Amino acid sequence: MLKALKMLENKKAPFLWPEAWPHFAWGSWLLTAPSEVNTGGGRVIDLKEGFKGPLELHQALLSCKPKLSLLDLARLWQQSQEDPSLAQDLNWTELVNHCGLRSGESLTQVLESLLKTPASFQTWSEEKQLAPRDLNLLLSFESEKDKSPDLVKTWENLLDKLAETSTSKSTGVKIMELGGELLLMGKQLPSWSHESPEHFARDLERVRFPLSHQSLEAKNQELKQWAWPSRSSGRWLRQGDELLMEIKILAPHGEELKKRLDQMKSLLEGQNG
Amino acid sequence: MAESGPIISKSQQDLEKLLDHFDRVYIDRKSENSPLARRLESLFPADKLEWVDSRPHPQIRGEMSSGEFARSKRQLYVTEFKGQFFKRCPGAKPGLACCNYFVLNWGQQCDMNCSYCYLQSFLNSPVLTLYSNLDQALEELRQLGKSLGEQSLRVGTGELVDSLSLDPLTLFSHELMAFFRDTPRWTLEFKTKSDFVHQFLDVPHEGNVIVSWSINPQAVVEREEQGTASLEQRLQAAELCLSRGLQIAFHIDPMIWHPEWKENYAALVDEVAARFRPGDLPYLSLGALRFQPEQKAMMRERFGMKSWVNQGEMWPGKDGKLRYPLELRQEMFNFVLNRFKEYSPEWKVFLCMESPETWLSTYTKAPQQVDSLAPLFDQGVSRQFRKALKRSQADTNSASG
Questions:
Q1: How far apart are CA A197 and CA A201, in angstroms?
Q2: How many Å apart are CA A148 and CA B398, to the nearest integer?
Q3: Which of A90, A147, A219, B371 could bridge to A236 as Cys pair (CB 3.0-4.6 Å)?
Q4: Which residue of chain B is at minimal alpha-carbon distance from A107?
Q5: pLDDT by residue for chain A (273 residues), tens digit each?
Q6: d(CA B387, CA B373)
Q7: Is A237 helix (H, G, I), strand (E, B) or coil?
């Protein structure tokens, strides 16, 4: 009797094994179908002996699916915790190392937390190939589950919304970081109804970093009072921990540019003096 | 004679606190005959002690979980150190103004729990390690001393481990102070957040030992520096050291922004200025909160978002560390600096781990140009030391090769 690996459950293409291909197994573990029924009663090839020599379970698994996602690993980890025979057959450390990760408590805690998030978010995290560091915030909500169920619900809604709006990886991770921290600080999130994810991320940043935002706004208000030369403008931008001034000068030719640069110099000297 | 009663009693209390703190003590068999191993064996109950042939918990490697990190603070491991003990302070990097500080690491990990501690992103060992071969570290220093001739040098021990929080257990202070008695041109600095000073108050010294405290307003201590001595305890310990002819210094570092930061840092400066004179302290350093982005997750998990450190508005600086916005740092530094100067222009205050830009905005000149601070930033000494260090390394390599 073959046992299926749960990592393939509820997966959409391209994670499914092509129907026309024969299925592979390693000993009693079916590697390429979510359940034995899905093999359609066709031929199953045992990779335990391999084609070029014996394979260990993790090697056989990786030969069928060379790139495992965090969700795959999370499901495998969970199954190995529930089924001692899988824990015995699978060299978890080697498997994880092969995926460029380091086995340990910090990884397994992230994997366990991932499986507790909404299904839509799990799929999004897989599509966007999130790394464990992108999901660290999940751990901070683990301790809130008993204390503040409403807070956790709001957090899960945010994760669900990320998946629903097909947010890009970088914006999604930023929204998770900023939104998650604000929730943990007990702050209200700005509404996210029709705005783009990028717009929402900017709104979150304004709420998360109010002092930085206020000082940037104040500086820019000051700039508006300046007597700018014709067709020139300036604004302050935050670059890392610094505020930098960006100046734009439009000029039809070199002579005019020189004139406006001189005017700009006088303007700046006047401000500094 | 009248003083010896309470001093012994406090010293014993400090020791007992530490004996209670550790759940387990592992001693490498190779360290069996070291003074440290023998002392710990005599102090700890047998059921806490275990003799081992290699580092405990070998399965824990690389990045630790927050739970593993917290547990590592309660497990002591004594072993020999195989590398080079003596190195330059991490502030000595391009882009940061450095103050000629050199560090001697005799262990790693700390028994206290500061929310901002950089060890959270630095350490990958599941045990608090103490090195049993301090004699080799001192030999390394001796060799360096030969190359340096008459140059002066500041040596600190509080980089990877608090200089004094474990000292009632190790008594390393005794060996270090004895060594520095023979090298009076060098300065030894203990840097701590504990008030464990009683164990070395009677050790003779040549006046070249500085005991320094990282200090913060009591509100910050309570919220962000768990397991450390209170501000009052630190200041009392400083007064006691001063009364015994030891030099003292304060590091107001890391300054932590919080809604009442001005009131609290003003009160801190007032307290220092009321209890000490500028001449009592060779220097006083200021630094603002900074940490590696990688440690943010662990900080958040361990201390939650109610922590002022975790709530901070942090942005990546040029060195990659997360820092407060430059304009806020400048405001905080200026505030404290001006408060000290209101009391006396003689307070020698310098900025720690800051960019030359921040120096210029605070002092309007580079550190080497500030009269009261120039000796701390003598680049000639620094260059000469680096050459000596290289020579010593080359000698060691050729000897071992």
A1: 6
A2: 63
A3: A219
A4: B65
A5: 788 888 877 776 556 677 778 889 999 999 888 777 777 667 888 998 877 788 999 999 998 888 999 999 999 999 999 999 999 999 999 999 999 999 999 999 999 999 999 999 999 999 999 999 999 999 999 988 888 999 999 999 999 999 998 889 999 999 999 999 999 999 999 998 878 999 999 999 999 999 999 999 999 999 999 999 999 999 999 999 999 999 999 999 999 999 999 999 999 888 876
A6: 24
A7: strand
**Rounded to two decimals, what is the model's pTM?**
0.87
Amino acid making up residue B327: E
Q: Give the length of chain A.
A: 273
Q: Residue A195 burial by CB count (10 A; 0-12/13-18/19+): exposed, middle or buried?
A: middle
| Tokens matching residue B58 | 């070998």
d(CA B337, CA B330): 10
- How far is residue B214's CA from residue B225's CA, in Å, rounded to a whole number? 11
Report the C-alpha gap between B223 and A37 in whole angstroms.
Answer: 58
| Contact across the interface for A106 and B68, Cβ inside 8 Å | yes
CA distance A85 to B235: 60
Sequence letter at residue B384: Q
Q: Is A187 helix (H, G, I), strand (E, B) or coil?
A: coil
Instruction: Give residue B345's identity as a one-letter amino acid code.
Output: P
Identity of the residue in B60, B300, B316 whose CB atom sits nearest the CB atom of A240: B316
Query: Torsions phi, psi of B88, nearest 5?
Result: -75, 155
Task: Please provide the distance, in angstroms rounded to a whole number, between the alpha carbons at the two ends of chain A.
Answer: 86
Distance CA B305, CA B309 (A): 8
Put simply, whether A105 touches B (Cβ < 8 Å) is yes
Q: Tokens 């003074």 identify what position?
A: B35
Kindly write down the DSSP assignment for every residue of B45-109, as one continuous string: -GGGEEEESS-S-TT--SSPPHHHHHHHTTEEEEE---S--EEE-TT-STTS----EEEE-SEE-
Cβ neighbour number for residue A165 with a 10 Å cutoff: 17
Buried b (16+ CB within 10 A) or exposed e, B287-322: bbbbbeeebbbbbbbbbbbebbbbbbbbbebeeebb
Residue of A nearest to B66 (CA): A106
Summarize pLDDT for A22-71 with one digit per residue, the tens: 889 999 999 888 777 777 667 888 998 877 788 999 999 998 888 999 99
Q: Cβ neighbours of residue B22 under 8 Å, at least 6 residues apart?
A: B44, B48, B74, B75, B76, B111, B128
Sketch the domain layout of chain B as residue ranges. 82-112+132-400
CA distances from A208 to A183, A263, B63, B305, B332 (A): 10, 39, 28, 12, 20
Q: Which position has the token pair 């109610």?
A: B306
Looking at the predicted complex, does its ipTM rise above 0.95? no
pLDDT digits (tens, 9 = 90+) for B236-259: 999 999 999 999 999 999 999 999
**SS3 category, B40:** helix
Q: Which residues of B touch A212 (CB under 8 A)?
A: 313, 315, 325, 328
Q: What's the rounded Cα separation, in Å, for the pair B244 and B211?
A: 11
Residue count of chain B, please give it: 401
- Cβ–Cβ below 8 Å for B326 and A102: no
**Inter-chain CB proximity B65 and A243 less than 8 Å:** no
User: Which pLDDT does position B127 carry in this prediction?
Assistant: 96
What gap in Å lies between CA A15 and CA A34, rounded to an integer? 11
Tell me the nearest-neighbour CA distance from A208 into chain B, angstroms: 8
Q: Would you give the distance in Å from CA A92 to the centre of its chain? A: 23
